[in-house]
Amino acid sequence: MQESEMNTRQRYLMKALDLFSRRGFDAVSLSDIAEAVGVSRPALYKHFKSKRDLLDVLFAMSDKGFAERMEELQVNFDEHPEKQREFSSLTVDQIVDRTRELFLHTAFDDVPRQFRQLMTVEQFHMPEVAEKYNYRYVERQYEEYEALFRMLMEEGKMRKADPETLAVTFMSPFIVMLGVCDREPEKKDEALELIEKHVREFCENYFLA
């Protein structure tokens, strides 16, 4: 595929994502997408077989982007044990900064925010989307930190406790504030302040010097 065609395809995808995230998948037609982009409906069929094909391509793109971003943020602890040890050497300020960065990316960067909003709605209509949503925003987050906390306990760097419970404790304010900022984005500073206080208190209560 030539670069100009790839750029055109990407433009269609981004406009579709914008419309799907605001209106819901069923409420948007291919004609709506074509009109928003400024092309004819047949032009979309040069790139996508159907509206569902377009959605599947969007989710494939999202999965790839999500995996790449988690690598960049170095929070995929269960897949890379060496990153668990890197985390154990971080200061509390560095842990706070990393958590803030992850929250800002998830809550306010346009593409991940639109994907999350799309999945929030469509999880009730498409079982495969519910599974994807649960894995990405709940199960994976807990599994990552459960693996990290278990390692830190084994190495004597963290108080002994149930690592699964601690993972839920650590991540819950993050997940709650995602929902708050989706509804009220003006509360970003309030959310960041709460998350920072929570992370510092968690580190003080459970990490060993």
Care to give the gist of this entry?
With 209 residues, the chain is mostly helical. The protein has helices spanning 3-23, 30-37, 41-45, 51-73, 81-88, 92-108, 110-122, 127-154, 163-183, 188-206.
Written overview of the protein:
With 209 residues, this protein is mostly helical. The chain has helices at 3-23, 30-37, 41-45, 51-73, 81-88, 92-108, 110-122, 127-154, 163-183, 188-206. Helix 8 crosses helix 9. The termini are far apart.
First and last CA, distance: 55 Å
- What is the helix fraction of residues, given as a range? over 70%
Instruction: Report the principal-axis shape.
Output: elongated
Number of strands: 0
Rg from Cα: 20 Å
Write the layout of secondary structure elements.
Layout: H1 3-23, H2 30-37, H3 41-45, H4 51-73, H5 81-88, H6 92-108, H7 110-122, H8 127-154, H9 163-183, H10 188-206
Helix pairs in contact: 1-2, 1-7, 5-8, 6-7, 6-10, 7-8, 8-9, 9-10
Based on the model shown, name its key terms:
10 helices; single chain; mainly alpha; elongated; 78% helix; 209 residues
